[in-house]
Every structure is written in C-alpha cells, then in structure tokens.
C-alpha cells in the first residue's frame, strides 16, 4: 500500500473523528441539553469545527493530494483509493478557500440561534428570531465571497448539499414538477369528500405510539446496539459513525405523524449505517448528497410506509394499540386516509403531493433572501403570500409559517430543495427496484424488507460519497434527474383513491 496514501488516511481520520464528536454535541444540543447550556455549547462546537477545518485544509494534506493524484489516476476508477483521493481533492479545494474562523463563527451562530428559534416558535414571535437570521445571512454572504463568482450566488450554497447541481437546473425541474402537481392536486381537492380521514384525529396515547414505532423500525432494521430514537422539537437524524445512528422524532397525543416521521428518519440512518466500512473515518463514509439522503428517507416514509401492502400487514398492530380510534376502521380506509390530499400549513405534516409545493416556496424565498430581494423583516409576509398562492392556505401565525422549520436557525440555507429532489430520486429508484425486485410490494405486504435493504445497500448505500450524485444516479437508473416517475407514481395512487 502506498505510504503517502496511508498518511493521508491517518490525517483524514482525525478530521472525521472531530466532526463525529461535533455531531454528538449537536445531537445532545437538540435533544437533552438544558437551554442555558447553549452559549457554552456554541463555543465548544465552534472550537471543534475550527480545529477540524484547520486540519483538513492544512498544506500537508494539499501536498499529499498533489503527490497522490498521479498514482490514483492509474488505479481503477471505482477503487476506494482512487475515490478517496478524487473526493478529498474536491472537498479540499473548497475548504481552503474558507477561513477556519468563518467556519467556526457559522457553527457558533447556529448553536446560539437554535434555542432562540425554539423559543420564538413557542411564542410565535418573529422579531425574537429575526436578528439571528440576519446574522446567518451575513455569514452566508461572507461564505459566498470566498469563491469565484458563480452563475448565481445561490449555486455556491446549493453545492454544499447537492454537489455539482446548479440553481437553474433545480428551477427547471421544479417548474416541470409544479406543472404536473397543480392539476393533480386540484383534481383531488375537488373530490374532498371521497376520502374519510376523521379517524386520524383524536386521542393516540404516546406510549402506544412508541411501541408501534419500535416494532416497525425493528422490522426495517433498527437495532438497539447501533441505533437510538429520542424526542426533539424538529425531527432529524444524526451519526458519529456507521454504528452510532441517532434518530429523533416528535410525539403529539392527537396525531400519528410521529410514526411516519420515525420511518423518515430511519431512511437517513440506514444510509449512514450501510456505507462500506472501508470508507469509515474518511470524508467519503457518508451519503453522497442531501438529495440522495432524502430519497432514502422519503422512500421508507412514503413508497413503503404509505403503501397499501404495508398497512395490510401492519394495520392490526395499530388497531391493537388504538382500539378506541381504529377498532372500527379497516386497512383500506386507513390507507386512503393517510394518503388524502389536504393542503396544510406544516411541511412535515403535508401529504405527498402538496409537500413539494412547500419545498418550492422555501427554495424561492432562500434565493430572495440571499440576493437581498427581500429582507429578513419581510420574510413572514412573503411566506404568507406564497402559501396562499401555492398551497391555498392563509397562515394564521408565524409559528405555523416562517418559524416552523429549524433549518435557517442552523444556517442550512441551500438545503430545502433537496427534499423535493429526494422525492424525485426516490421515485426513480423505486421504478428500478420494481423492475429488479418485481415482488417488492408483495414482500412489503409480508413485513419482509431484507431484499429492499440489500438492493439499496448494493446500489446506493455502500458507495457513500465515492461518486458525485449526478454520476450515482446515472449508474443506478441510467439517466438524469427526472420528475416524471414521481408524477406517474402520485397520479396512479391518487387517481385510484379519488377516482380520476
């Protein structure tokens, strides 16, 4: 083995370990830490991120890459060694442009803003959160200035989450998606009485919810020796390594939304858990992009978890847990109820079709904020106008409007589009899965998920970040980003449910 490559791996392992420690601190920050610990936690995270950044962007790593690139180019393109050198070069070339102090300041600001956002949302007080958003935007503009001019400033932020993707590409795909969704949603909402979902509102004891979730997640692949499931304000998945997977969810006593939230976060966790162990402690040992990550979470939540076969198998478990609410409901009625189209205020509670409109709204607002077309003070009004235009709902308060998501508090501007990109990719992957595992839904209907897990491991998970997202999609489905499979899937399901 090349000694310089081994030295590179040793240096990279220290960096990955630091980021893993930061991930655990971040998880604790959003689940268990007392609120008054935010200031100290912000400094701790800032310090760790600054040290990791400094080590990763060191001249020593740059020199090793220079020396290793000719060697790596002679290797098999798909080899771990060639992939690590290729991927780390791209990361390094971006990182050296950004001062470590700026990275640390962004991390500290996010850690301080998160609990303020939580309190502002409780009080429905935009003014409380606005100064922190202003700070986040200032830092993001400083970050953009570190790079050569792009076609659009937003391209630089988007690239952090969806490498190689351009804002104009996303815009074009979203226009095609929106054009297909609008008539589909209209057809469904015109037939609002076709689906009864009244049984989904009422008393669902939280302890019973937890028992159901655990049984479903364990069937999916959750094990207590490598995974956790905890409570939080805004659900997320985190990891410090492939065998330390932290899922979170949010339980409410009058809804079953946490069951779907938990399935969603499981998809994220499974991706991280099943990367090739050869990539562990390298920057390639995680998902290739947020779009691909969301394809996994949305697949388990929707294509599996909202399917008819799934609930034909698992509905008796729900009836046993909630006899008062569901004892007189059958599996078919439940399937129709959880797939109803109903415009809603809250993104994470939205149905599969209107969900994408929530994402397009945020994608557009983020661009407006970065370019200065709207100021942070104007965000709630702009949000409310777009909600009325796109989703057809008037926003009653800012807690259910512009304060509902944690992403801006965390500095994750450029992230939101990946949710809808994930929906698109999940349908493209499922189309391929259905060809290669023709009885996949029959297996789901028996509560069997091993073949699906193995297909995903072989085709997506094990590769980590060996390939750019565009390249991985081409390898798996034989083409580029295409919203038509998603539109066909939604059209088929909703057409059957609503009779159009």
Describe this structure in words.
The chain is mainly α and 500 residues long. The protein is 64% helix and 3% strand. The chain folds into 2 domains: 3-149, no CATH class; 167-498, Neurolysin, domain 3 (Orthogonal Bundle). It has a 3-stranded mixed sheet with strand order 1-3-2. Helix 2 (38-56) runs antiparallel to helix 5. The longest helix is centred in the first third of the chain and has 29 residues, at 3-31. The chain is globular and about 70 Å long. The N and C termini lie far apart (62 Å). The mean pLDDT is 96.
CATH topology of the largest domain: Neurolysin, domain 3
What structural class is derived from the secondary structure elements?
mainly alpha
Number of domains: 2
Poorly predicted ranges (pLDDT <50, ≥5 residues)? none
Summary keywords:
21 helices, 64% helix, 3 strands, single chain, 500 residues, Neurolysin, domain 3, three-stranded mixed beta sheet, mainly alpha, globular
Helices and strands, with pairings:
Layout lengths: L2 H29 L6 H19 L2 H15 L6 H16 L4 H24 L2 H19 L8 H9 L5 H23 L16 H15 L6 E5 L5 E5 L2 E6 L7 H17 L16 H15 L3 H14 L1 H4 L4 H8 L13 H20 L7 H13 L25 H20 L3 H5 L5 H10 L9 H9 L6 H15 L2
Helix pairs in contact: 1-2, 1-3, 2-5, 3-4, 5-6, 8-15, 8-21, 9-10, 9-12, 10-11, 11-17, 12-14, 15-16, 15-17, 17-21
């Amino acid at each position: 083995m090349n000694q310089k490559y081994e030295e590179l791996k040793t240096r990279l392992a220290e960096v990955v370990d630091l980021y893993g420690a930061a991930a655990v601190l971040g998880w604790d920050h959003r689940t268990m830490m007392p609120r008054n610990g935010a200031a100290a936690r912000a400094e701790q995270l800032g310090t760790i991120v600054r040290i990791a950044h400094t080590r990763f962007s060191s001249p020593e790593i740059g020199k090793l890459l220079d020396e290793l690139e000719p060697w790596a180019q002679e290797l098999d393109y798909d080899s771990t060694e060639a992939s690590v050198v290729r991927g780390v070069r791209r990361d390094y070339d971006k990182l050296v442009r950004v001062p470590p102090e700026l990275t640390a300041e962004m991390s500290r600001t996010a850690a301080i803003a998160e609990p303020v956002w939580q309190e502002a949302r409780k009080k429905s007080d935009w003014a409380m959160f606005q100064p922190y958003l202003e700070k986040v935007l200032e830092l993001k503009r400083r970050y953009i200035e570190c790079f050569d001019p792009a076609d659009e400033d937003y391209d630089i932020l988007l690239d952090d989450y969806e490498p190689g993707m351009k804002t104009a590409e996303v815009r074009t795909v979203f226009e095609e998606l929106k054009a297909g969704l609008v008539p589909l949603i209209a057809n469904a909402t015109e037939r609002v009485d076709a689906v009864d979902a009244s049984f989904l509102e009422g008393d669902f004891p939280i302890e019973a919810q937890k028992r159901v979730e655990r049984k479903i997640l364990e069937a999916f692949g959750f094990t207590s020796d490598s995974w956790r499931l905890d409570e939080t304000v805004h659900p997320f998945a985190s990891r410090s390594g492939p065998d330390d997977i932290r899922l979170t969810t949010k339980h409410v006593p009058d809804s079953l939304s946490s069951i779907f939230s938990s399935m969603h976060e499981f998809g994220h966790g499974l991706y991280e858990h099943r990367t090739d162990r050869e990539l562990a402690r390298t920057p390639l040992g995680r998902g290739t992009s947020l779009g691909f990550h969301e394809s996994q979470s949305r697949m388990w939540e929707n294509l599996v978890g909202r399917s008819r076969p799934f609930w034909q198998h698992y509905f008796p478990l729900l009836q046993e847990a909630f006899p008062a609410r569901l004892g007189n409901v059958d599996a078919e009625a439940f399937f129709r109820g959880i797939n109803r189209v109903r415009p809603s205020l809250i993104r994470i509670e939205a149905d599969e079709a209107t969900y994408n409109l929530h994402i397009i709204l945020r994608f557009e607002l983020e661009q407006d904020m970065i370019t200065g077309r709207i100021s942070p003070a104007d965000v709630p009004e702009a949000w409310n106008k777009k909600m009325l235009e796109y989703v057809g709902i008037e926003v009653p308060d800012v807690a259910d409007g512009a304060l509902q998501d944690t992403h801006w508090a965390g500095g994750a501007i450029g992230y939101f589009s990946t949710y809808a990109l994930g929906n698109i990719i999940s349908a493209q992957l499922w189309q391929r899965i259905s060809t290669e595992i023709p009885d996949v839904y029959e297996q789901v209907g028996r509560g069997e998920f091993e073949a699906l897990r193995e297909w995903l491991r072989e085709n997506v998970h094990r590769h980590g970040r060996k390939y750019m997202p565009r390249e991985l999609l081409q390898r798996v489905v034989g083409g580029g980003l295409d919203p038509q499979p998603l539109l066909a899937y939604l059209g088929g399901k909703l057409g059957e449910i609503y009779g159009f």
